[in-house]
Amino acid sequence: MSKPLTIGMPKGSLEQSTLGLFQKAGFRFYGGDRSLWLGSNDPELRPVLLRPQEIPVYVANGSLDCGLAGWDWIVENRCQDRVRILADLCYSKQSFRPVRWVLAVANDSAYQTTADLRNVHPPIRISTELRNITEDWLSERGIIADVKFSWGATEAKVPVFADAIVDCTETGSSLRANGLRIVETVIESTTRFFVNNEVYKSDEWKRSKVDGIALLLKSCLAAETKETIHLEAARPDAEKIKGLIPSSATFTVWEGQDDRTMFEIILEKEISRDLVPALARSGAKRISVTSLGMLYE
After folding, report:
1. Mean pLDDT over residues 175-195, rounded?
2. Domain residue spans in the chain?
3. Which of 2, 23, 190, 260 is spaced 20 to 30 A from 101 at the CA atom?
4. What CATH number is given for 226-291 in this structure?
5. Closest Cα to residue 293, out of 217, 223, 215?
6. CA gap 221, 292 in Å, rounded
7. Structure confidence by residue, pLDDT tens digits, 142-177
8. Nearest CA among 193, 213, 222, 240 for reference residue 52
């Protein structure tokens, strides 16, 4: 075995979601009150809590073997060519949807579309934590702007310190609460699990280890939105039951005792809540619904 695999864990808004996902995959990390380096129930892993903004840099330059951060910070730090993405993990602080970095202005601003930002004199002032991506995005659209780095509280910068902002949002509620209106999405981002390119190419043990972690994380995340329905039905009702199962679901059927047909159905939780009553009306019995800990498809 090589020396332990070092892995950057995002500190802050993604911290609890990420630690919870790893725990579902069988990895328990502990500590963190005084030291950024965490203990682990897997002696082959050495996790460290860091800001997600800096994890891509440390993985790209080899200070860390692998890590988790948003695609936004990988691109912002120009690291996408120096790391290998192993898993696209669509989770964030509040949901399983991508987050968006959006261009926003005050509700009463004269700027209605991106085109309105062209040929503004003096150039429009934009405040953001995502300066490189914002400048590239504006340049692609022929917009000259004065883009300043924001150290936080970006929503409060308009209108005194900036004419517009580029900020991260999941629902848009914080922007609306601050009297801001979204003009356009600059970039969508999801959490990625990634590894240093050279580590992945040259270290067979670490390559196998990170591939295994990626598979477990993806399988646990896939299970978050799905559940299993078990049921039995009289054989004459089996075809009717099959006809109710949505095409997006996967299911297994086998013959049980006493002329009963057994079903196992895996499907989205949102579909399950409507399907269960329909199954019951069609003769299904002994219906049970269980959560999934892991789902590899």
Report:
1. 95
2. 5-96+190-223, 99-189, 226-291
3. 23
4. 3.30.70.120
5. 223
6. 10
7. 999 999 999 989 999 999 999 999 999 988 888 998
8. 193
Instruction: Show the CA angle centred on residue 296, arms to residues 294 and 297, nearest 5°.
Output: 140
3-state secondary structure of 4: coil
**Do 5-96+190-223 and 99-189 share a fold?**
yes
Q: What is the pLDDT at residue 104? A: 96
Give the whole-angstrom CA distance, residue 264 versus residue 288.
10
CATH entry 3.30.1330.60 includes domain 99-189: no
Q: In sequence order, what are the residues at sequence separation of 6 or more whose Cβ sits closer than 8 angstroms to the Cβ of residue 35?
A: none
Residue 1 has pLDDT above 60, yes or no: no
CA 207 to the chain's CA centroid? 22
What CATH number does the domain located at 5-96+190-223 have?
Answer: 3.40.190.10
